[in-house]
Amino acid sequence: MEQVTFGVLGPVVAWGSGGGALALKGPRHRAVLARLIVARRRVVPLPRLIEDLWDEPPRGATGAVRTFVADLRRALEPDRPPRAPARLLVTEGPGYALHASPDAVDAWRLEAAVGSAAALPPARALERLREALELWRGPAYADFADEDWARGERSRLAELRLQAVEQLAETRLALGAADAAVPDLDAHLAEHPWREDAWRLLALALYRTGRQQEALAVLRRARTMLADRLGLDPGPRLRRLEADILTHDPRLDPRSAPAATAARVWAEAAEAYDRTVAAGARARLESTVGLLRNLAVTGGGGLQAAREHRTAAITAAEEFGDPGLTARVIGAYDVPAIWTRCDDPRQAQRIVAAAERTLAVLPGAASYDAARCRLLATVALETRGTRSPRGPQAARHAEEIARRLDDPALLAFALNGTFMQSCTRAGLAARRDAIGEELVALAAGHGLVTFEVLGHLIRLQARCALGDFPAADEHAAAAECLAARHELPLVGVFTQWYGALRLAAAGRFARAEAAYRAAATGLEGSGMPGLRDGLLPLALLCLRLTEGGLTERGLTKGGPSATEHVDPGADWGPYRPWAEPFVLLRGGRRADAQEALRALPEPPADLLYEALCCLQAAAALALGDRPALRQAQARLRPAAGQLAGAGSGLVTLGPVDDWLEAADAMR
Question: What would the DSSP string read from start to end of 41-94?
Answer without folding.
Answer: TS-EEHHHHHHHH-SSPPTTHHHHHHHHHHHHHHHH-TTPPTTPPPSSEEEETT
